[in-house]
Amino acid sequence: MRYVKKITGWVFGILFILVLLAMGLTHLMEQQTTLSELTDHFDTIGFQPEEHKTVFDEGTLYYVTYGDSTKTPLLLIHGSPGDWTAWKELMVQPEVYTNYFIITIDRIPYHQTTIKGSYSLAEQSNYLKPVMDRYCSPCVVAGHSYGGALALQVGAAYPDQVAAVLSIAGTIAAPFQKPKWYNRVLNSPLQYLIAPFFQASNNEMLRLSDDLNALEIQLANIRIPLFFIQGGADVLVAPESVVYLQSKIPDADTVLYYDAVRDHFVIWSDIPIVLKALEEIRLKLSL
After folding, report:
1. What do you get for the CA distance between the two ends of the chain, in Å?
2. pLDDT tens digit string along 261-278?
3. Which of 10, 40, 69, 151 has the lowest tally of Cβ within 10 angstroms?
């Protein structure tokens, strides 16, 4: 069985590199969706997203707000790679926009955020401070995949400004996020053959395990509730990741929504479970 898993990992890794190289050579994914192209997607709701930029010496952090600003703020953080439009299907769900004011970012260094380079979870969290100060008094923070880890980092960094964290198929467990062989292969001149956003993603994966070890220490005394969605059919994040983290923070208030057949792409493939988690957060905290 172990041999089969090893062969499967190698095959997946080779295919992964070939796909990245093909996409890098053609730059097919460089044409990300712009806000103006999504007008029809949001038109039926009665709200239109508003664009914002927070300026730093290193560049600008781009984010979008959506909905009724009198509602509880919900900060949404996409995965690696990606951009704020990963959340566009969730944003138009009535259960979300009638109860939450949505803030969704382009993480460093993706899409319309112009801050470039490779940053740790803690450093990315630091760049979110102006957004936190402006909107979160407090807010709910939710993240998908790598964004789930960053959501936890934000909760640890700003406990007085975060009411709860929701990690969705999050890359949250250090032992399971050690760099794969293909991450190391791409940490070479080959990186110049792939699109810049995939270079950035690979750099994040190379350092993620170390970032998570540091985050684990910070979460030891966390007092805000942590919610997790994880599936047993997730081929990108180890299904046992949440149970591992729970064992490291036994005093934390945690809730796990687990389904053996749930995949990694929950924010598209299983929106109902995300809606359920957000509603239970709202009711539990009387938001």
Report:
1. 48
2. 999 999 999 999 999 999
3. 40
